[in-house]
Task: structure prediction
Amino acid sequence: MKTPVKATLIAVAVAIALIMATIVYALVDKSSTPSTDGSDAPAVMRPSSHVLDDGGEGAVTVVEFLDFECEACGAFYPVVEDLRDRFGGEITYVVRYFPLPGHVNSKNAAIAAEAAAGQGRFEEMYHRLFESQPQWGEAGESRAELFRGFAQELGLDMAAYDVAVADPATLERVELDFNEGRALGVSSTPTFFVDGEKLELQQWTDLEDAIQAAVGAEQ
Result:
């Protein structure tokens, strides 16, 4: 159970997120044809998707399409962490990249996260990027060197990290998520899917309510 103070902070964070999501996050170019990693229909979750929590068989699946530079995603970050904690063992939580074109470093951040994932350290980089977002978000120049510094702080093999960052396959992996998100109707971040159903956020409790309802239906 959340304390009143914690609930208030979460409510404020989500209110900010809902406001920000209506301002500048409809920048995705819908004029081009989205593509996926094959000719099959787009899927909310792929075998290559990054799973932060695996609730096991029968668990509710929550998928978030995110942009590490997005202020709304940053506002939702503590909300998501709270829900992951409270619904531990009942949900499988998955994140996918959706770097918005209007953010200079959103793709750089996703590439850094994917490079860390190659060394089994995706979640650590995920936390580091969101926790440091005020330090680099909305910068007008590349902050790739800052992200490399995060990799060093995490103790990654830096030679392997540099190879991964430079490898076109890493960018392709990020773009796979982005393109598939577009095919699924994602146009802003964060966008959540609960058991495959796209969630339309209207109130700060919508994500929690959707998870609670889905968990209750499984019991």
Q: What stands out?
A: DSSP finds nine helices and five strands in the chain. The mean pLDDT is 87.
